[in-house]
Amino acid sequence: MKKNAIVAQSGGPSPVINSSLQGIIDACNSWPEHIGHIYAGWHGIEGILLEELIDIAHQSPKEISLLRYTPAAGAIGTCRYKLKDDQVEDYQRIIEVMRAHDVGYFFYIGGNDSMDTPDKVSKLAREEGIELIVTGVPKTIDNDLGDEGFTIIDHTPGYGSAARYWAYLIQNIDEENRGMCVSEPVAVLQAMGRKSGFIPAAARLADPEREMPLQIYVAESGHTLETLAENVNRQLQRSGRCIVVVSEGFDAGSLGEARDGFGHIEYGASQTTVAQVVTNYLNHAGLKARGQTTGQLPGVIQRSTSILASKVDIAEAYEIGKKAVEIGVKEGTGWMATILRKPGSTYVPFLEKVPLPVVANSARHIPLSWITKDGLDVTDDFVHYAKPLIGNDWPEIAIEDGLQRFSRFNVRFIEKKLPPYLPIRFR
Amino acid sequence: MKKNAIVAQSGGPSPVINSSLQGIIDACNSWPEHIGHIYAGWHGIEGILLEELIDIAHQSPKEISLLRYTPAAGAIGTCRYKLKDDQVEDYQRIIEVMRAHDVGYFFYIGGNDSMDTPDKVSKLAREEGIELIVTGVPKTIDNDLGDEGFTIIDHTPGYGSAARYWAYLIQNIDEENRGMCVSEPVAVLQAMGRKSGFIPAAARLADPEREMPLQIYVAESGHTLETLAENVNRQLQRSGRCIVVVSEGFDAGSLGEARDGFGHIEYGASQTTVAQVVTNYLNHAGLKARGQTTGQLPGVIQRSTSILASKVDIAEAYEIGKKAVEIGVKEGTGWMATILRKPGSTYVPFLEKVPLPVVANSARHIPLSWITKDGLDVTDDFVHYAKPLIGNDWPEIAIEDGLQRFSRFNVRFIEKKLPPYLPIRFR
């Protein structure tokens, strides 16, 4: 029986989130006997609650094909709308919207917090006897979804691109710091990833032979500002310069933390940053070299820079989007598409499915065994794990009239069929 | 009469400084009857004072050819060593080193502060009756060298790449902000350029049609934190989101400023930043939209990202390096190579020479007529000026084994011929 589909995104953008969207669209179109219209929730679950839906059929094939190299979440939007168990009205509204638009498939692209939503919607639909197939599509640059044994997911789409950003950034910064060290001997760079160290760890990919004076402080490192400064000064005595990559979740005392819609610390909106605290601490403590420490805060740039996306990541994000549709059509509701890798020294990924309740609100850190004993680096096991994910090539970002040509959707909502609704968190 | 040459760099790196170095090397090699060995001062004038010289003949042709796409100043280093008039010993030492190594040509790549040094060395050599031809090669991402009538130099090599960084960055950030605005409606990004607005202005190149909710606060804008917040909130009421590009030199009150070797404010080493102050001010004042402001501080990343360099800039930096050698050989001492453009609507640049005293310590701001009346934007005249400088293509950065392949010089100093010397500022 033919039903319509809704696709929606949740949580922070990644450079490849649109590639998963494209995979979902292409796959839906390849099951015409099962899936009719494809609608996108404008800004994720908020768009579903508000009945703000975009018809993918109104988008030109060219714009859909451009999704592959369009970073972040500008095409259909994303959000951080938290749906707690007690928001019964919100859940009922979601079911009503699905029913009103004859939706039988719901594809939800998101990270660990976000996977809670499709899980709950899937269960609720089943309870109410509604034919709604809900499938999750993993996405987070943080790579913190799943378990530390990597049995639920090997790596999340988005992570490979964040890792490539850091590998290439540190290569450039090494040229900068090498050239400028007699005046600015220490460059501090703050990486995303909250309390999970996968993103800062990726700086090591810039220098697997350990030739650069690079120190990596993941949140899990056990270091303090004092021991960080000691280590930096030891490096300055050895090398005359030092590149410090520090996690936004590194314990540098109070930051005047802000919180996002999920209740997590929003480091980019806090009153100060780990990079600034570390920079000030080093400049105040004094460097064992002439010159000063400078701080860099790429912030959301690291999750939205198209040219630094990984082609491996782009391709996998697309395939996992397609796989999610196949799982939905063939296996029914309640799964998340996942990517695993075969054991052995060669990188051989494969797609699988995992029950949504297993992933919902799961969280992992970088394995402690991948952090070196001195807490300043990650091991070759990490390099072996992450290196294949960054790929071997530049993505082919189209340029028109000197500018990047990104996908631009026609944001016109389909006709509403329900009375207006104010989501609980907007009240 | 055949003489050796010294090339050295000064001031902050740019993504194309090595391209000028390559142009100088190639041109020196094309005048074998005039120029013998080519030496590079390791970390600029500091390397000359310390007699730390690298022989370019010891570098492989492959590494020299890779300079074109190697960003920042890691190949031969740069510095911020200030040479004041009263540092007589330092100047004498420079002359001694030139004499000891039979140097007849001195090519100095630098910005407005740096051009003071070759000017003084040129004059001193003439006074002492030494055959030393000194030629300046302009370089600064800030584009603040020269005059506001653009008669001394149209634009400095390095600026086109910083402009491309900002154009492409803002395109990516627009995707990010469009997608994420229901949670993070305001993205603040701090641009370099000190008190001169050419770099933040380049954000406009991302959106010459003015479709994005983009506000640009150059230091010369006349805005305060209060009026900035008012404008951002007006934008939020219109568009639901806002991208704020703010100059590091914008007046946001005290930053606990640090100073560099030239005595200028070193924004990256200060105790806080304009981006942080603006972010905190907006979050404290309250936004007329749900969610929060986030701050981004690309810092030195904007002057060292190879893939975001402009191919036009790379090519011009190379040609201006070659031109400097030609000027030195044909016209004698005391000039800086410069680039001008022909009047008219098509971009036609040409190379010229300008006396060093004219450029030494010159400084320009963005013309006030290029800032819009509301102080939130730059005019189409600016777009017309800057657009041709960012080029139309990605540079061809070689990738080997998944990583960028940059030039790596063999840093082995040539045999010293003089007793050790401690530069005045190191004492």
List the helices and strands and how they pair.
The structure is a homodimer of 427-residue chains.
Chain A: E1 3-9, H1 17-29, E2 35-41, H2 45-49, E3 53-55, H3 61-66, H4 88-100, E4 103-110, H5 116-127, E5 133-138, H6 159-180, E6 186-191, H7 198-201, E7 214-217, H8 225-239, E8 242-247, E9 258-259, E10 265-266, H9 274-285, E11 293-296, H10 311-331, E12 335-341, E13 349-355, H11 356-359, H12 380-386, E14 399-400, E15 403-404
Parallel strand pairs in A: 1-2, 1-4, 4-5, 5-12, 6-8, 6-11, 7-8
Antiparallel strand pairs in A: 2-3, 9-10, 12-13, 14-15
Helix pairs in contact in A: 1-10
Structural write-up:
- 2 copies of one chain form a homodimer.
- With 427 residues, the first copy, chain A, is of the alpha/beta class.
- Chain A has 12 helices and 15 strands.
- A 7-stranded mixed sheet of chain A has the order 3-2-1-4-5-12-13, with helices on both faces. Chain A has a 4-stranded parallel sheet with strand order 7-8-6-11, with helices on both faces.
- In chain A, helix 1 packs across helix 10.
- Chains A and B meet through helix 6, helix 9, strand 11 and strand 15 of A and helix 6, helix 9, strand 11 and strand 15 of B.
